[in-house]
Each structure stands twice: as C-alpha cells, then as structure tokens.
Design a protein that fits this description.
Elements lengths: L10 E4 L15 H6 L5 H17 L3 H15 L4 H16 L3 E2 H12 L3 E9 H11 L3 E10 L2 E8 L4 H14 L7 E4 L5 H5 L3 E5 L3 H10 L3 E2 L4 E2 L28 H9 L1
Parallel strand pairs: 1-3, 1-6, 3-4, 6-7, 7-8
Antiparallel strand pairs: 2-9, 4-5
Helix pairs in contact: 2-10, 4-6
C-alpha cells in the first residue's frame, strides 16, 4: 500500500479500469512484453479479443475469473527483475495517455476536501501501485501473486475482485479509521457491486449494462467519463525514484477486434 498522507476519516475508493483509465490495466504493457520476448503473437491475439469484449460489455464475475486464470497462467515463470525493468521504463508512455480527465478532476475534488484516495483493482499490485502513485492516491489495494526464487509461481495470494474488494476496503477502513457510511466508491462493473454496497456514497462510472440497471433501481448516481488525456498535463509526474518496482500482468491494450488490434500494432 501507498503511505498514508493524512488522517482523514473519509476515503474515496476507485476501481481502476474504465473508471480511472480508459482500458484494462492488466493488458496495457503487452507490446513491451512482446518486444522483450515474454509473450508471443498468439497471446497478443487472444488478449486483443478479450480486451475488445471487455471494452464492449464489461466483465462479470465469471469473466473476471477467466481473465485471472489466463493472466496468471501466462506470467508463470516470468523473471520479476526483467518485468520490473520493462514496466518502469514504459509506465508513463503506456498509461499516461489513458487517464480520464473527469477522473482526475473528481480525485482532485476529494483531495481538496481532505479525503483519502484509494485505488482498488483486480489487476496485479505491481501494476496498480505505480499507477496509483501517478494519480496521487493515498493507498492502493490489488491482486497479489506468489513469487519464489525471483519468479512468479502462477499461484495467487489474494485476488482483489468481487467480494474480496469489499473485504479489502473494510480492512483498510478499520486500519485507517474510515467511516464506511461516509465514504465514496466508484466503479464501472457489476462485479464490484459488493464494494459499492459497502460505502454510503456509491457511484457507477461508465457502467456495464447490469450495473447501470442496478444503479437506476437503487437511485445511485451514474457518471460518464469519455475524455482520456495526458496525465502529465494534469498531475505532475513522480520521479523514477518514486515509482515502485513494478511487475506486469498482461496482454494487449486494443480498442478494436483482435485482427485489427494486431495489424495496428504491426504498423
């Protein structure tokens, strides 16, 4: 987790993908991984299709589980030091242009109120933590993988999705003294319904169909974020020394179908 910077008893919990950034954080480092020989063209194609479907329809619990299994199987045996270097070198290039301007404005509003910002994501902590630092978050909670002898074993220590997101939020609230009924939560996915239910002020952002229906039935606010901008123009970027060692999970960030995504990458 990121170090605590204030003593607020209120936090704003943000999902990451399609809430703060416009694509899946688990996939955005794939081009760099391909160039370094960690993944092959077949993995690029499979991941492009998965990313395309995620952008179109979101991900329910079953899809999230399949995504977890795919990613962990793919990175089994990866050398952590190699991936750390790749992510650190490419972090700003691949993530910086994807941050929603509306999200940065909302984060700034919460910070001006003296409230903590917490990023809660199913992506790996090694990816989520440096992104959280980029946006000025107070804490981050994410999926943790098991490592041994400097490599990933393929096992997952904690999968930060579904009910586990709500569990992680409550545990952090207990540690930091947050009053959950005064806290806020933002997400795009029906899989995050437990997190949204755990706070007093839930908001759906770019919701999938199921979450939009749930939000309308419960009278929750619904926000549309649609303007990715360069983070450098809105939040000062940290120095390299401030960026935590990052390990990647991923495939590809593609906004079209698998064939189109691969052809575009080749160009």
């Amino acid at each position: 987790m990121l170090p605590n910077v204030n003593s607020s008893d209120v936090a704003a919990f943000f999902d990451l993908d399609k809430t703060i950034i416009a694509r899946s954080s688990a996939f955005v480092f794939s081009r760099a991984f391909f160039q370094e020989g960690l993944i092959n063209r077949r993995a690029i194609l499979k991941s492009a299709y998965a990313q395309f479907m995620y952008l179109l329809a979101g991900a329910d619990t079953e899809q999230m589980e399949r995504m977890r299994a795919h990613i962990t199987a793919q990175c089994t045996g990866w050398d952590i030091a190699q991936v750390t270097a790749i992510v650190e070198e490419t972090l700003h290039d691949v993530v910086d242009p994807l941050v929603y301007a509306e999200a940065t404005d909302l984060i700034a509003t919460h910070r001006q109120r003296g409230e903590d910002i917490v990023v809660v994501s199913a992506s790996g902590t090694e990816v989520v933590q440096p992104i959280a630092k980029m946006i000025g978050a107070t804490h981050s909670v994410a999926t943790r993988m098991v490592t041994q002898d400097g490599r990933y074993t393929g096992d997952v220590e904690f999968y930060c999705a579904g009910e586990n997101k709500a569990l992680a939020a409550r545990q952090l609230a207990e540690e930091q003294g947050y009053e959950m009924q005064r806290c806020h939560a933002y997400s795009d996915s029906i899989s995050d319904l437990p997190l949204l239910e755990a706070v007093g002020h839930p908001t759906a952002v770019n919701p999938d169909r199921a979450l939009r229906r749930e939000a309308q039935q419960r009278g929750w606010p619904v926000l549309a974020f649609s303007n990715p901008v360069s983070l450098r123009t809105r939040i000062p970027a940290p120095s390299n020394a401030q960026i935590a060692a990052a390990v990647g999970l991923g495939a590809v960030a593609a906004a079209g179908a698998a064939w189109y995504g691969l052809r575009r990458w080749q160009r």
